[in-house]
Amino acid sequence: MKIALIAPPYPLEEAPSPPLGLCYVAAACEAAGAEVLLLDFIVSRYTPEKLRAALDAFAPDVVGATAVTMNFPDAVAIIREAKAHRPAIVTMMGGPHVSFDVDNTLRRHPELDLIVIGEGEATLAELIPALKTPRRWPDIAGIAFRRGDAVVRTPERPLIDDLNRLPLPARHLLPMSRYQALGFPASIITSRGCPNRCIFCLGRRMVGSKPRFRDPRRVVDEIAHLLTYGISRINIADDLFTADKRRVQALCAEITRRGVRFDWSAFARVNTVDPATLQAMRAAGCDSISFGIESGDPEILRRVRKGITLDQARRAVTWSRAAGLRVHASFMCGLPGESPETLARSHRFAEELGIEYGFHFLSPFPGTRVREEIAEYDLEILTDDWRQYDANQAIVRTSRLSPEEMDRFVAEVYHRQQEKTDPMEARYLQGDCSDQEYLMFEGLYRMRLVYRLLAEDMIEGARLPAGADGPDPTTALVTHIARTTRMDTPLVDRTIKALVERGYLRWETHGEESCWFWTYNNRLPHPPPGRATG
């Protein structure tokens, strides 16, 4: 059985990390005996021609994809292209969007044969041997498919009790060097499940209300393995990392005991931290923490069932800073009952905390309580164009706030923040900045350049005359990239040379040309046979 798994395009501006969920799916497929190809179109430009060539080379029996709401249209378009090109393949999708929009998805997209609902690893273990035999599908829990004009849902599958039984994510199938070039952290999970009831979140429904924890030793094993790729920064992407303080302490103690050194960050709730927990995290290498506060208005917090208070937020921020952690808070715009006054309270509270913060817009995803019970809330959803569900624009209105007013509010907040950073950026561009300012803006400009290198396949398209600059053609590549992007040549030079020194970019000489390519990862110069991506 050959299975091609697809990571559909995702905006690079959203700082994507290597697709952890898809790597768990790939590992489950491999454990079931399948040969797996992972096509990563997050860090490589997608084109139908590229997809067709990859499918012809690999000849899969099955093509699968995952998606969140925002990139579902791209994911299903890729599935449609794959089915049209090779009609005999079985096509399937998983992920939060299709799990909670099963009927609409299957009825509107005949190119999709099957949906894996919710947590997929145990389902795949049973499904893979039966994928080519549709008459067996009704006996497999946790899936949905069509029978004639009807949508068939099999019984719900129980969640996996022991997460330690799961194989480690199959990151060896990813072009890791591309993610490392971007400088974004890799993600891991140490648990699944969230006991909280926020009306705008899918976590509780997707992975259950009771947290399930991985053995700290196995988590640190995974971290140690990740570090062998040259990754030095990791983000813990649990639904609620600090759900159990004793477990956090045990994990931090295991990291310290084994002398595993790396920088890491985590998401937490303001009512689940205390000074001892935060100090243990800092001692184990954690340098930043993010809190979802959502609103500075107590009534809004009550209405969305956030379950926190503003005083808890104040204490959590104070304790985190005292522990030496960089603190970030996220707020939402457009929650039920939102008004100019509630937004003003949120902004004042964010400023009061004296930390980094950002505002994002409410996106009422399929499966969330706010969407399914919309009549109970002072809220109107304005579109089902899934591409707009990126939390970067207003797609709702309340009785007292229009989407235009929401957009203006967030734009004004961003403008005020820019007014603080613009002088620093000017000093950077003039070469008269502090070391901290240099690191901040050099990283920003490099990231923008790497975005373009990846999204436009610039490296793959670089065929330069060999010998023009001696045995090392890097200068010719720098000149080519600077001319193509119209970006500052010294910046391009520093960036390209750093990517070459770290082993992310290499070249081969063919005749009179130097052909550049991204390495598969910095340990493997080329993709293993049958594992090429993008």
TrEMBL record:
<dbReference type="GO" id="GO:0046872">
    <property type="term" value="F:metal ion binding"/>
</dbReference>
<keyword id="KW-0489">Methyltransferase</keyword>
<keyword id="KW-0479">Metal-binding</keyword>
<dbReference type="InterPro" id="IPR006638">
    <property type="entry name" value="Elp3/MiaA/NifB-like_rSAM"/>
</dbReference>
<protein>
    <submittedName>
        <fullName>B12-binding domain-containing radical SAM protein</fullName>
    </submittedName>
</protein>
<dbReference type="InterPro" id="IPR023404">
    <property type="entry name" value="rSAM_horseshoe"/>
</dbReference>
<feature type="domain" description="B12-binding">
    <location>
        <begin position="1"/>
        <end position="138"/>
    </location>
</feature>
<dbReference type="GO" id="GO:0031419">
    <property type="term" value="F:cobalamin binding"/>
</dbReference>
<dbReference type="Pfam" id="PF02310">
    <property type="entry name" value="B12-binding"/>
</dbReference>
<feature type="domain" description="Radical SAM core">
    <location>
        <begin position="180"/>
        <end position="400"/>
    </location>
</feature>
<dbReference type="InterPro" id="IPR007197">
    <property type="entry name" value="rSAM"/>
</dbReference>
<keyword id="KW-0411">Iron-sulfur</keyword>
<dbReference type="GO" id="GO:0003824">
    <property type="term" value="F:catalytic activity"/>
</dbReference>
<dbReference type="Pfam" id="PF04055">
    <property type="entry name" value="Radical_SAM"/>
</dbReference>
<dbReference type="InterPro" id="IPR051198">
    <property type="entry name" value="BchE-like"/>
</dbReference>
<dbReference type="InterPro" id="IPR034466">
    <property type="entry name" value="Methyltransferase_Class_B"/>
</dbReference>
<dbReference type="GO" id="GO:0051539">
    <property type="term" value="F:4 iron, 4 sulfur cluster binding"/>
</dbReference>
<keyword id="KW-0808">Transferase</keyword>
<dbReference type="InterPro" id="IPR058240">
    <property type="entry name" value="rSAM_sf"/>
</dbReference>
<keyword id="KW-0949">S-adenosyl-L-methionine</keyword>
<keyword id="KW-0408">Iron</keyword>
<dbReference type="InterPro" id="IPR006158">
    <property type="entry name" value="Cobalamin-bd"/>
</dbReference>
<dbReference type="InterPro" id="IPR036724">
    <property type="entry name" value="Cobalamin-bd_sf"/>
</dbReference>
